[in-house]
# Entry
Amino acid sequence: MTETPFPNNAYAIELRNVDIFYGNFRAVKDINLQIEPRKITAIIGPSGCGKSTVIRCFNRMNDLVPSAHLNGEILFHGKNIYDPDVDPVQVRRLIGMVFQKPNPFPKSIYENIAWGARVNGYRGNMDDLVEQSLRQAALWDEVKDTLKKSALALSGGQQQRLCIARTLAVRPEIILMDEPCSALDPIATLKIEDLMRELSTQYTIIIVTHNMQQAARASDFTAFFTMDTDRAGIMVEYGPTSQIFTRPKDKRTEDYITGRFG
Amino acid sequence: MTRQTLERQIHHIQDEVLLLGSMIEQAMLKAVSSLKCRDIAEARRIYHADQLINEKRYAIENAILILIATQQPMAHDLRILAAMLEVITELERMGDYAKGIARVTIRLENIEIPIPTQEFDRMAELSVSMLHRALSAFVTENPNLAAAIPAEDDEVDELYNRVYLNVVNAMIANPQIIDHANLLLWVAHNLERMADRVTNICERTVFIATGEVLEIDQSDDETEQDVE
# Structure
């Protein structure tokens, strides 16, 4: 059982005794994880440890995988998001996601931002929303004169910031990022990390990353996952990033972050 | 097992730290013996050899910084490297103490003054022995061994107090020697401080093992810190 680094109960979202299955295979087991609001929490661990599986359950993205199902509870504002009366579309509006590979729609930059807001029934000034979202994503200055141009003409780093702006446009509370920089060069990566830091004053960010240096640089809290003997993913250790990377408590964490895993 | 390059380089730096330590041990023993024998030529050699100690310290520091920048060490690896940065600073200061003693020898050339050689010899012997074992504990990461060493500082402190009293009494009896006798107090001070700095190395050894910096108790800590 991993200790919680937080003494209070005001979590942004909380996993309680979560097991996730693909068919009969238990991909992760007994995860208890409390996410601090308006902080950046990184999930790290070797391939196959279930970190992407876990981050996808935070906004019911795993619903889209037919064989996937989940035991346990994921509490968001005190409510289990897997309860039958919860609308997964509403969950995904409040808990947005940015993916590994930038995936803008084959539309204009403007439309990429406006589309989600329109679908969600946004009735305010769309130009203002687009500008505000692009500014928040630190992209406005680079695209303000080319808003009608195709989003696909942007560089990879710009496309990823556009996807972040698109997520912000629907006013989420939590932003999930699954390896958001793995397709980006180092400078674009640092821009995203700076942006994450900026956004964390208003949003809760959960990031899955293979890049330990990125977790060390960019996150406030780190959860280390690994694979148990039955190949199910487990959470080994969770704590402040500064502690995890300088004096982890568990030998498995130590071995992984010092590069001696396996 | 991965990270063989990093481990090889850490071991290499640990060897260099041991080498630096043995340079200090030699310098300190020779400094005290040159004072005892009034060997001015030897004292001058020790005085100038301090430069080599400083250079070695900066070379090690540079190697550690390069390793941190290029290998991104974490956790235990990072603690070893951070601790070594601290330890080489302590060692360099001990080198300065040896140099200071050599300078006293040079300044006492042709000066008639009784030197408490027995106490100085014993203080140097104890301090060097403590340093030697502290560095062994440091590179072998043995926190238990490290934690036991600082208690030995008590004997060094007693010797210091004895020298202090004797020298001050000599000054009172013969005020003309005050200037030169004061230099002998500095020798005693340097030897005593060397043993204190060994304690800091022992604390770093505990830090590598636990990640916690614990002040290891020293009976004289309070009085010494007050006048620094």
